Amino acid sequence: MAVAVSKAGPYYSSGQIKFSDLRRDFRAQVRKSATGGSETFNSDTAAISASNLRRNTTTTDTNPIVPDAVENGSISTSNNLKLSQFRNSIKYYYISQSGTDTNFDIDALTWNGNLGRNINKFMFIDGTCGSNSVSSTAASFNATTYNLTFDVYGSVLGAGGRGGGTSGAPDPSGEGGGNAMSIASSGGNNIVVLVRSGSRIYGGGGGGERGAQGANGSSGRCRNETTTSGCGGAPGCPGGYNDVGSWGGGCCQSTCVCWFRCCERCVTWQQYRRCVQEYDTAGGTGGAGGTGGPGRGYNNQSGSLAGAGGSGGGSGGGCGAGNGATGETGGDGGEWATTGTNTNNSGSGGGGARAISGSNYSVTGTINSSTVKGAYNP
User: Fold this and answer.
1) What is the largest CA-CA distance in the chain?
2) Is residue 261 in a domain?
């Protein structure tokens, strides 16, 4: 984590304190920019009086001249104001992020107790915040605060969802993408996400649905025949065979019937029985559908979104039974904040995620299809 804390101030650590200095530092309100320079923030160059220099503790005031801050604790809120109370005072509080961070927890940073006070605070995101899991946002804030601006110059990238049927993912549906940024500040006020040109706040894409199983092959029909025979009577059919007819033919036993000479006469005929066996054979089992492709996300910024091909079907059981069909190819994963592709399976592609989720915040700045992908309004 590369995080730096800085402040507009501390002012007047030594030397004389003049009203002109107080007007410049507390009323003109020129604040630091993330690029290292300065920019006007709620500029006010009017004259300043002692009554303007009391520490303002009203949390609903979005533009306090002398803000409430831990560093300004010695400045009076009433009539007993002294210029010496402004020693080491501050106007703004800054935290800057650079480099790359995953699951960046903003409220856990060093705010020095100022989140619950009305001093204008700026969280500069200059680097990249990402997440490798849809269960965690790339950057999150969960605390009550007042007058906090998330000034995004860099990238906040949610995780892409896994394809249906892959390890750890639903089956057959694809996994939904992960939100890029989450903000929750119950009871807070004036919480702003400022989107700069060139920044990226992208929700993750959903994973593709798993392909449907291939159709089973058609069944076959086997037919076997056999014949039994016997002198005077044919034996029954073997087990599993049906008797479909019998007949006789040919003498198998004869006798003599003449007195003076033998006149042979048939007394028993050969008997035959026709037996038939018929049964079905199963077709081959259809091949498994291919797994869905992964969605676009911090964990898949440039890799393939394609679903996997289905498995080949099994062989039929003979006697004309057909082979199983190849399983359907898995659905492609979705691009940033886009739903994954559906297939003919019983589920669906995973949903695309939000750019910003939560409540009690507003979004301003350069908002277009290049800077923000996914829903962002509370």
Assistant:
1) 166
2) yes
